[in-house]
Amino acid sequence: MSERGDNSPGPTAADVDPLGDPFLRTCFAVPVPPATFLRRRRLVEHLDQAPATPLTMVNGCAGAGKTLLVADWAAHLDRPVAWLTAGATDQAPGVFWAYLLEALRACGAHEIRDVGCPAEAGTVDHGLLARLAARLNARDRPVTVVLDEYDRVSAPEIADQLGFVLHHAGRGMRLVLVTRTEPTLPLHRYRADGTLTEIRDAELAFTPEEAATLLELHGLRLGDDAARALVERTRGWAAGLRLCALAARQSSDPETYLKEFEAGQSTIADFLLAEVLKRQPAPTQDLLLRVSVLDRFCPDLANALAGRRDAEPILAELHRANAFVEHLGHSWYRLHPLFAEILAAHLRVRFPSLETELHRRAAQWLRHTGPLPETLAHGAAAGDWPFTARTLVDDLAIGQFFTGLRSGDLGELFSRMPPETTGPEADLVRAARELSDGDPGHALPHLERARRELARAGSGGAAARLGLALLDTLAARMTGCPDRAERAARTAGELLRDLPAELPRKHPELAALLQTHLGAARLWAGRFEDAGTALRAAAAGSDGATALSREDSLSLLALIDCLTGWPTRAERRVLAALADAERFSLAEPAGSGLGHLVLAAVALDRDELGEARALLDRATAARLSPWDPVTAAALVIVRARLQLARNEARAALETAESAVPAAVASPWAEAHIALVVSAAHLAEGRPEPAVKVLRDAVGQDAACTVAAARAHLAAGDPGAALDLLDALPAGQRVGPAVTVRALLVRAEATGRQGDHATARRLVTRALLDARNERLRRPFQETGPWLRRLLDTDTFPRLPARPGPRSGNEPEPGHPPALVVDRLSDRELDVLQRLAQMMTTEEIAADLFVSVNTVKTHLKSVYRKLGVNRRNEAVHRARELRLL
Amino acid sequence: MRYEIRVDGLMSETLTKAFPELDHVVMSGQTVLFGPVVDEAHLYGLLARCQSLGLRVLEMRRIPE
User: Fold this and answer.
1) b/e map of A545-577 (b: 16 or more CB within 10 Å)?
2) Which residue in A370, A561, A698, B53 could disulfide with A570, CB within 3.0 to 4.6 Å?
3) Which residue spans within A192-278 are E strands per DSSP?
4) pTM
5) Which of residues 437-456 of A touch B (CB under 8 A)?
6) What tens digit of pLDDT does each residue of A179-201 get?
């Protein structure tokens, strides 16, 4: 077995599959035809026409010789071939595409290196498929993609996705489907276009001449008539002919056996397999029956199942004789799919109770050498649940319930675990399932039971304790218990130090999940610094296993930016998170929709209400209920602030009443809800309660202090407002969304006290500070005083705001835009040419002006649009419908 | 729902064990498997099982309860 690698992006060695399982590499291996394989020229020639058509379909019944035909053809091609035995992978689209991308990389299609890779089982992002198709389209030589056992790909969306990629890859990809059933691609359209090469059962059937040649390869000679009779009886079915040859070879008089071969009334495969099986020596029969419970096996594993030592020569001989066994390379074998089914039926008849025991032995053997999913599958099939749960937990793979390509599989597998299974690991698995369903209430009893059992066991069980600590951290996050999260994370850190280093390395998602949940819990407690430390650590990864945690932690970091008044920084972070999520095809919006909530809050501060509302809708469409108090609180706050901005103060007050269930209160959540309540009172002309509601938060939170000052101002007490602002600690690192508001309150207060020069100076500073962040909401909040001031004086202008978009009704009671700077005609001329990707020199030549003049125009365009770069200017101008 | 599946040829006792949920009867060179079918998924699963055992399905029909 080779080393499992990490899933680092970039060129992967050919011996690491996307899930880090060397074992499943066998599904990228082109099967090797046995010595007795007959190359049939007419079929190869038909396949050779395949490069002319984008799609080739080889479909026929089990044992018709499809796979070997295509494998032999592919081995002689002078073009790269990406082979994927699709039946060997999980059925979810995300997994299918992860494997297909890996198959492409393995065959040397390096241009798809940066296409990305799905990190979730259930989904593959459309953008990823589009990127893949575009990269393939750019190839000068087509890559041939063979999907064997395509009939076992059941997800209907995979067919659509394949059709899409095939269409858009143009001449860069040739797809060969090997299948028992018609795929759900629009075949009639391909046939009508003449873009489909088809080889079906009738063509796959052996002719009498071919049958005679095949038997010769098996050392049997047959006359024309006998060959014709044989083909008639077997209908030229490859598997039937092979079995005939085997049965004949083992009889005393092969010629006569073949001449008199008569399956009678029996079904051929059934009859012949029984014939061939009963002629094998007893040890071989026993071995064949036992390995029928396995998808693939190596001699050592076969020995473990049969309790023998001589599987290797037996398997080699069977493969050489072209009987039952196919060689997958790397000394792994599998049974011919047709015979596997029939052998399994024989096993049940001969040894009715052995099946469970065989699964148990397979699980035991695989536990030390094989890939985890196979081990778990056999453990579950054996009904040995304590073993299965322990295997998962000891491998430190419990985090896979919450991330990665396996989460759906694991949930499905362990849903069959009966309630009477005991042991700390079983309880941990149950807790993980409840938590991944977003139900900490039901998870907690399981966690407590696991804790008691581990305590009773005394020492040892480091992996189980680590699993418990991880789930504890998550449960603490979901229930809003920061202290508990700290304790659990500390325990986890100590345990990680004591474990052998390769285990945590194998599961990078474990540390990422821990840090993310810890960060979220700290954020709830209002400890932004410490939260940032944990979240930045969680966001540092770059692989698929940690993609979900990465998006989660980046969204939480963006929320911290937002709460401390840095909207642009928050926006950048969320956009980075979304771009990363797209690379890994995470469901959109992944996680909790927190990222979109943050974007909505940013849009609110910029007074882009339609945008904010659309984003809020997207965030809430993701889930019916937010899954942790941080998100729940953010949702309440953003929703209430949007209602305030739309002059629905009463509705905002009602929203602010919404309960956010959590064990301990969160200072920032309370403060920001108090902010909304205070602003709602002010909007309805009640300054007294507006002051009162903020009393506790003043001094704790800069934004609240500023809001309290505003309330005092509204109550007619500019002195009190200034006192509050003066008391603001200078060292707090709050961003422009807070400082601009503070400047405006101070300006109004000094203005009221008669110092108009200072007031004007302060307003000017506020406008300048707000420009780069495109902050407009703070100016809307100040009311008529500022409007009068701005009307009487010249001030620096704020960047223009996007006009009303189609589909957005005008906001009710929305005051007209404050300060909008129109672009001059000349500036518009320059902007239009900028959008056509012209250089500064080209624009100058086109407009008959100097380059310097163009640069001056550009500067003022940037200033008026509130941007710093060309592409931003064009983007912004499109938003504003200026182009 | 109850279904019957008619297969070409006589199935051995062993092979019929691959359909533990169905009864079978042999007539004129054909085997008829019959019994309760839970839902669509089960039905298609039975068809797939026939295919993977190399059986030729001649007829498949729903029978009145």
Assistant:
1) bbbbbbbbbbbbbbbbbbbbbbbbbbbebbebb
2) A561
3) 196-200
4) 0.76
5) none
6) 988 888 888 888 888 889 999 98
